[in-house]
Amino acid sequence: MADSDEEQIEELKAWWAENGNSLVITIVVALAVVFGYRAWQNSEAEAAEAASTLYESISVAVRDAPATAPSAEVLTSLRSLGNQLKTDYPDSTYAHFGALHMAKIAADRKEYETAEIELMWMLDNDVDGILEPVARMRLALVLVEQDRADEALQMLSVDIELGAHAVSWHETQGDIYYQMGDNENARAAYQKAVDLLSEDDSPRPMLMAKLQDLPVTPSAEEATQVAE
């Protein structure tokens, strides 16, 4: 029995000599993965909390600002917070919402180039699919204000999931066509928006008025028949 025990001990020693280092390494790596993943989770949670705090600061500042326009001091603070969100947490939804806030403030101040920069940043940084239609519509309107209607239409020519923004999307297209003097395409876009209204949608009297104010353009054949 003793010989057997000694043989087993010797075999164990030999096995450890051959495999001990790799076993230790495997254990260390496994522990590193576990603790590393937990550290990553904690880091992600901390980053999300920090981004949320920054965004909340922007929301509060915008809410408490005078109805006309934020003061120079508040505006400087808002820009600082918005830039920090984009720099430190560019992948967060909070950064994209912050950019929307900053774009609206800039547009209200007729600083259209600044608003364009904020909205383009969203599109260039993997904006969430739910927010992309909003960013594109607002950017299109900003481009129109800069006499860049063709670019505005291109911004709305992409094939993306519109969801609840479909009616507003086509209405915005109609507004742009109308400003370009293209009444035929404006009417078609407004009609598409009206057709997409559902029973659950709120009444859109302005949209209906836009459509009704545009006369139906007769086709070439119809115009010829009228002339005869």
Cα-to-Cα separation, first versus last residue: 121 Å
Continuous helix count: 10
Low-confidence stretches are 23-44, 219-228
User: What is the radius of gyration?
Assistant: 30 Å
Structural class, by secondary structure, is: mainly alpha
Globular, elongated, flat, extended or rod-shaped: what is the shape? elongated
Q: Main β-sheet, in a few words? A: none
Number of strands: 0
Helix content: over 70%
Order of helices and strands: HHHHHHHHHH
Strand content: under 5%
Mean pLDDT: 77
Could you walk me through the main structural features you see in this protein, from its secondary elements to its overall organization?
This protein is mostly helical. 76% of the residues lie in helices and 0% in strands. It contains ten helices and no strands. It is elongated and about 105 Å long. The N and C termini lie far apart (121 Å). The C terminus is likely disordered.
Topology of this structure?
Layout (H helix, E strand, L loop, with lengths): L1 H63 L7 H17 L4 H16 L3 H13 L7 H14 L3 H7 L10 H14 L3 H13 L9 H9 L6 H8 L1
Helix pairs in contact: 1-2, 1-3, 2-3, 3-4, 4-5, 5-6, 5-7, 7-8, 8-9
Features:
10 helices, disordered C terminus, mainly alpha, 228 residues
In short:
With 228 residues, this protein is an all-alpha fold.
